[in-house]
Amino acid sequence: MRMISKIRRVAAVSTAGLAAVGAVALSPVAAHAATSMTITEMDYFSTPGQVAAIASYVRSFEAAHPGVTVKIDHAPFAELDTKLLTDATAGDLPNIIASDNPFVPDMIATGQIVPLSRFKGFSPRGYYKPVIDEGLSGGKYYAMPVAGDNSLALFYNIPMLKAAHLSPPTTWAQLVSDAKALTTSKTYGMALTGEAAEDTTWQWEPFFWSDGGQWSKIDSTAGVQAMTLIHQLVSDGSASKDAVSWSQTPSVTDQFLHKQTAMMINGPWNFPTLNQQGWYYGKQFGVVPIPVRVAGQKVSGPLGGEDWMISKSGSTAQQQMAFQFIEGTQATARAVTFAKTFGYMPARPAVAATFLKTAGPEWKIFVDQTPYMRPRTLGYGVNYPKISQVVWTEIQSVISGSKSPQGALSSAQGQITSILKG
């Protein structure tokens, strides 16, 4: 499933921005010589900005560690998980892995990932708890964020809402009402993501979780209310049934840019794309928290991002050097630069405060809501992808009209109960 690659597409950074990546100091870990040591890293980063940022950091790291060579392998997203699991079975993983955060439990389950507490200097303190807990398993931490994290918010077309004399919705009732008022012969009020992939579950989670939903009780009142919201938007014509084939990015983003929808749920990785098309925060588009069912509820949505892990492959010295490589990406200046390059929020509140000074006001909503976001796999581990597939399949059935919200959730409940028992 290429949800994370979709939701993390960011534009190439400017030459000046990349120069800044190279100029940022490494972690205050003492540089030392190592004799002809090579460490390997594998990830799925594919945008020019991401690739250049990693390459620039590698050059700085190698310069600070004479004799050390870092070999980077950017694998296709669709192939990475399978390759890593195959390599884990053979005990031949790269020294460093950067994976989509929902995949972290799968890697831990192989028994081939080293707990980070083994390395002097590691501490989970200072991070947003939901972010660092993405790598928590059995009381041990196995992962650290690559470039921070991301989440979701409601994007809206400012001129369209002004023309309709509307303010951005804050509750579900307002969302339904505004979407209907904004729907015309050429424009839907709201664009949904409904393809057969993780991004469909990911977009529904803020509605479900903010209303108190739990996967083990998906057919509870919270589940019915959240699924009914989707049904209502489609049934009254405010959202299209064609959403069953729309990805979050680029499909929904393109709808928004072409003024075919007035509102969308999406993330900060879209800021560079919008800016490149002449859309700017506060002028062409605005961003507000995702509406909640009842005023006063806290938005609780999923965290996105990638995590570093260290494998058992290689010598103790290679593992230690791999940790130093990862630790260097957590230094404040480097973390700020990585966050800007990737289109994410920094993983630590102190770094986020520095980030906000230059990132722009559109980022504040995402930073402010980070403490209330959730790691998708926490408590569910390797069962999460199975649950997610059940959920997106049933969301599709509601969008298409083949099932009622209650019917879809009853089906989902039976399947999820079996998954959790298994």
Structure description:
A 5-stranded mixed sheet has the order 2-1-3-10-6. Strands 8-7-9 form a 3-stranded antiparallel sheet. The protein has a two-stranded antiparallel ribbon with strand order 4-5. The model is unreliable at 1-34 (pLDDT under 50). Strand 1, helix 3 (48-64) and strand 2 form a beta-alpha-beta unit. It contains 18 helices and 10 strands. The longest helix is centred in the first third of the chain and has 17 residues, at 48-64. With 422 residues, it is of the alpha+beta class. It has 2 domains: 3-149 and 305-372, D-Maltodextrin-Binding Protein, domain 2 (3-Layer(aba) Sandwich), CATH 3.40.190.10; 153-301 and 380-421, Periplasmic binding protein-like II (D-Maltodextrin-Binding Protein, domain 2, 3-Layer(aba) Sandwich).
Briefly characterize the structure.
This protein has 422 residues and is α+β, with helices and mostly antiparallel strands. The chain has helices at residues 3-7, 15-23, 48-64, 77-89, 104-109, 129-132, 158-163, 172-182, 198-210, 221-235, 248-257, 271-276, 316-328, 332-342, 349-359, 364-369, 384-400, 405-421, and strands spanning 37-43, 68-74, 96-100, 136-137, 140-141, 144-145, 153-157, 263-266, 285-288, 306-310.
Query: Beta-strand level of the residues, as a percent range?
Result: 5-15%
The overall pLDDT, averaged over residues, is: 91
Instruction: Count up the helices.
Output: 18
General shape? globular
What string gives the helices and strands in order?
HHEHEHEHHEEEEHHHHHEHEEHHHHHH
Low-confidence stretches: 1-34
Structural class: alpha+beta
Strand neighbour order, sheet with most strands? 2-1-3-10-6
Please tally the β strands and state the result: 10
Number of domains: 2
Largest β sheet strand count, sense and barrel closure:
5 strands, mixed
